[in-house]
C-alpha cells in the first residue's frame, strides 16, 4: 500500500494548489481525481471555458457593432461559427488542464484517477475502472468542490433544461434562452448567447440581480444589460419548468402573486451551486457535514477528524476559485507548522460580463447595517480619456472609507477591465490604506486605473479632478 504525508481528494484550483504547496514544503503528496482530466469545475466546465466564450462572443459583437466606428470595414456579412467557437473554447481548456498535469509531474505528486472515498480517517479508497486501490495518508485534504444546484421540481434533462455545464457546449444558438437566476453564472452565459443573437430572459427571485453585491453595482449592471436587450423579471418565484418537445415552458409568480409564463427553446437553471460530497463516505472518517451539506471545519479548516481538512466550495464561504486556492495554501502551510491566515473580507468577487463588475470589502448596505459611519467617493468611467478612446464608457468606481480614520472599507466597480483593477483595491486594503493614500499615488495616464485614483479623491473631501 502506497503511503503519503498528504492525500488531496479533488483536483480543482483548491486541490491542485494545496497539493503543489504540500510538495513544495517537502511532503510526499498524492492527488485523487474522479474525472479523466485535472482542474475540477473551474478549468473544465467553469471559469476558464466561460471566459473563453465571453471573449469570443465579445470579439463578434465588436465586429458587428463597433468596428465601423473605428474605421474598420468588413466586406460581406460577419457570421458566427458556433462549432469553431466551442472548439476553440475546448482547446483552451485542454491546454490548461495539461498544464496542471505538468505541474503535478514537476512537483513529483502522484496522481490517481478514480472516485476517492474514505475507508477510515487514514485510508482513502480509489475506485478505478477495473480495480479498487487503497492508499494510506497521514493527512487528507477534502477539495471535492461543488455541482450546479437546482430546484426540487425541476428535471434537468441536460438537453433543453440545462445547467452551465451544458450551456458551454451547445450545438446551436438558442432562439430564446430563459435563465432562472440572476447571479454571476447566469448573467455571464446569458451575455454570451445574447451577443450571438439569442433572445435572453432572466428570471430572478430577489428584487435585484447579483444580490450579494453593492446595490449600486446591481442597478448599473442591469441598466447596461437592458441596453443590450436582455430582459429581466425580478421578484419572480419560479414554480414549474416543463419541456414540451423542443420548447420549455416556465411558470412563475410575479411580485403581485400573479402567474406569468415564459417559453423558450432552452432553459438555463442557474440558481447557484451545492457542495459536492457524494460518495465521499465522510462519516467513515469521522468527518461531519452541516445541514447544507458542507463539510464542517474550524478556523484552521480542520474537520472533526483532526488529521483531515477541507477547503473551497465544499466548506462555508464564497464559492470562488481564488478563495479555494488561498485555503489550499493555508492548509499546506499549517501542516508544515507555519502560521498562515486568510482575511476573508479581502477576497474579491468578480462578474466577467462586459462591462466587468468587481468588488472587495464591505458594501454600503453592510456598513449601514453595522452602524459604521462612512464616506463615499464615486467616479464615472465615461469621464476618462481612456474609456472614450476605447468606447467603454459604462460604469463607475466607488470607494467607501471610514468617516473618522479614512481607512478604505470597500471598493465597488463596474467598467472595462475591472476584474484586473480590483487587485489594486485588494492591495491597498491589505495594507490598511486610507482613501488619501490611494489619491496621492501616481496613476499612469491614460488608463482605466485613473478612475480608482479619482474615486479616492472624491472620497477625500470631494476632490475629484475630472468630473
The named CATH superfamily of the largest domain: FAD/NAD(P)-binding domain
Specify the CATH architecture of the largest domain: 3-Layer(bba) Sandwich
**Tally of discrete structural domains:** 3
Range of helix content:
25-40%
Oligomer: single chain
* Mean pLDDT over the full residue set: 97
Write down the CATH class of the largest domain: Alpha Beta
Structural class: alpha/beta
What's the main sheet like?
Answer: 7 strands, mixed
Q: Count the helices. How many? A: 13
User: Which band does the percent of strand residues land in?
Assistant: 25-35%
What is the number of E strands? 22
Can you describe what's shown?
The protein has 467 residues and is α/β, with parallel strands linked by helices. It has helices spanning 13-24, 40-45, 47-66, 82-106, 164-167, 184-195, 215-227, 321-335, 364-370, 385-390, 418-430, 435-439, 450-459, and strands at residues 3-9, 29-33, 110-113, 115-120, 123-127, 132-142, 146-148, 161-162, 176-180, 199-203, 231-233, 237-244, 247-253, 259-264, 266-269, 273-275, 308-310, 349-351, 356-361, 374-380, 396-402, 408-415. It folds into 3 domains: 3-147 and 274-342, FAD/NAD(P)-binding domain; 161-271, FAD/NAD(P)-binding domain, CATH 3.50.50; 346-459, 2-Layer Sandwich (Enolase-like, domain 1). Strands 1, 2, 3, 4, 5, 6 and 17 form a 7-stranded mixed β-sheet that branches. Strands 8-15-9-10-11 form a 5-stranded parallel β-sheet. A 5-stranded antiparallel β-sheet has the order 18-19-22-21-20, with helices on both faces. Helix 3 (47-66) packs parallel to helix 6. It is globular, with a radius of gyration of 24 Å. It starts with a strand and ends in an 8-residue tail after the last helix.
Amino acid at each position: 500500500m502506497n503511503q503519503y504525508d498528504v492525500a488531496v481528494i479533488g483536483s480543482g484550483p483548491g486541490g491542485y494548489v494545496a497539493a503543489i504547496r504540500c510538495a513544495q514544503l517537502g511532503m510526499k503528496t498524492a492527488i485523487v481525481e474522479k474525472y479523466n482530466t485535472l482542474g475540477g469545475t473551474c478549468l473544465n466546465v467553469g471559469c476558464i471555458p466561460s471566459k473563453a466564450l465571453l471573449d469570443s462572443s465579445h470579439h463578434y459583437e465588436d465586429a458587428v457593432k463597433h468596428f465601423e466606428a473605428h474605421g474598420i470595414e468588413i466586406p460581406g456579412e460577419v457570421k458566427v461559427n458556433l462549432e469553431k467557437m466551442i472548439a476553440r473554447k475546448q482547446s483552451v481548456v485542454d491546454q490548461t488542464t495539461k498544464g496542471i498535469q505538468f505541474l503535478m509531474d514537476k512537483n513529483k505528486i502522484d496522481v490517481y484517477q478514480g472516485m476517492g472515498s474514505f475507508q477510515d480517517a487514514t485510508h482513502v479508497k480509489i475506485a478505478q475502472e477495473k480495480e479498487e486501490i487503497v492508499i494510506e495518508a497521514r493527512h487528507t485534504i477534502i477539495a471535492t468542490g461543488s455541482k450546479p444546484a437546482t430546484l426540487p421540481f425541476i428535471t434537468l434533462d441536460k438537453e433543453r433544461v440545462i445547467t452551465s455545464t451544458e450551456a458551454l457546449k451547445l450545438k446551436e444558438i438558442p432562439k430564446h434562452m430563459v435563465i432562472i437566476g440572476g447571479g454571476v453564472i447566469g448573467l455571464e452565459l446569458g451575455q454570451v448567447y445574447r451577443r450571438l443573437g439569442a433572445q435572453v430572459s432572466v428570471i430572478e427571485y430577489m428584487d435585484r440581480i447579483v444580490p450579494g453585491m453593492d446595490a449600486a453595482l446591481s442597478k448599473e449592471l442591469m441598466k447596461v444589460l437592458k441596453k443590450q436587450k436582455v430582459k429581466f423579471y425580478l421578484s419572480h418565484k419560479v414554480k414549474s419548468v416543463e419541456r414540451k418537445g423542443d420548447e420549455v415552458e416556465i411558470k412563475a409568480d410575479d411580485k403581485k402573486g400573479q402567474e406569468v409564463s415564459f417559453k423558450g427553446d432552452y432553459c438555463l437553471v442557474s440558481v447557484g451551486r451545492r457542495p459536492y460530497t457524494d460518495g465521499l463516505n465522510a462519516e467513515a472518517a469521522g468527518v461531519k457535514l452541516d445541514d447544507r451539506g458542507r463539510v464542517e471545519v474550524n478556523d484552521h479548516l480542520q474537520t472533526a477528524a483532526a488529521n483531515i481538512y477541507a477547503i473551497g466550495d465544499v466548506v462555508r464561504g464564497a464559492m470562488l476559485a481564488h478563495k479555494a486556492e488561498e485555503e489550499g495554501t493555508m492548509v499546506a502551510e499549517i501542516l508544515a507548522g507555519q502560521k498562515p491566515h486568510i482575511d476573508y473580507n479581502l477576497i474579491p468577487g468578480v462578474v466577467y460580463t462586459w462591462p466587468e463588475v468587481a468588488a472587495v470589502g464591505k458594501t454600503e448596505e453592510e456598513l449601514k447595517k453595522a452602524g459604521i459611519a462612512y464616506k463615499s467617493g464615486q467616479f464615472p468611467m465615461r469621464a476618462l480619456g481612456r474609456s472614450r478612446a476605447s468606447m467603454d464608457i459604462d460604469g463607475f468606481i466607488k470607494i467607501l472609507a471610514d468617516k473618522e480614520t479614512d481607512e478604505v472599507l470597500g471598493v465597488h466597480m463596474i467598467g472595462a477591465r475591472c476584474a484586473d483593477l480590483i487587485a489594486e483595491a485588494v492591495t491597498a486594503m491589505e495594507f490598511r490604506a486610507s482613501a488619501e493614500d490611494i489619491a496621492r499615488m501616481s496613476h499612469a495616464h491614460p488608463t482605466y486605473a485613473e478612475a480608482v485614483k479619482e474615486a479616492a479623491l472624491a472620497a477625500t473631501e470631494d476632490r475629484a479632478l475630472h468630473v
